Amino acid sequence: MTYLSSIPINPLRRAGQRLVSNRQRMHAALLGGLAVQPVEETILWRLEQADHSSRVLVLTQSRPNWDHILEQAGWPGADGGDPKVADYAPALAMVIQGRRFSFRTTLNTVTSSHSPVAPTPTQQAQLSSSPRRAVHLGERSAPQQLTWFLKRAADDHDQWGFTVGSSEFPTVGIVERSHERFTRRRGEPPVTLDLATFEGELEVTDPELMIRTLTAGIGKAKAYGCGLVTLAPAGGRSVVAG
What we know:
Layout: E1 3-9, H1 14-20, H2 23-31, E2 44-49, E3 54-60, H3 67-73, E4 84-87, H4 89-93, E5 100-108, E6 110-113, H5 121-128, E7 135-138, H6 142-153, E8 162-163, E9 172-182, E10 191-204, H7 207-216, E11 229-233
Antiparallel strand pairs: 1-3, 1-4, 2-3, 5-10, 5-11, 6-7, 8-10, 9-10
């Protein structure tokens, strides 16, 4: 089974502010919603923020319980404040060859390379390790990030089981962008995220592959709110829970 949850977050409560401002803390709180510990399944999530409200969308393989987040960072007992948990199977059943959907996803737009032009000391250490490890290079400008996406899902490319038109006339755009850098633990290299939120219309080219994309996510930094793809009927708002 797979479940998609929508959890309202109260931005006026201190615990809510702490969650929406810290990706590591949010990930830990979401792991706490699963009964089987330690958590071995991959969870996908994305924070959705508006002017006066926030919510987090979460995809899990087992049925979760979000009471701890509701009590600490939500609106306990308020109308519209309860988390929603939906069986994701009906959405997956709609993924058939040639069907079109509106979609939304936030991705960490990085490329792996064994030969960066000007590697940092940390990257040089990775390149010199045995076995040799590729380094991750972030795409930071909007044109670069859009090109990064189109190389994987436009023209003859359908790396994720869907296409978004052609490079010349894509059916996707970037609606939000951010560059984030933080340290997980003292003494460890910082985490760098080059984030872009893509929104548009896709066409299913390989249903089996696309279902894997929807359930396993896209790209890197999934623990930090990247990789979840949400769908809606073509021309609709690209969220299936909420």
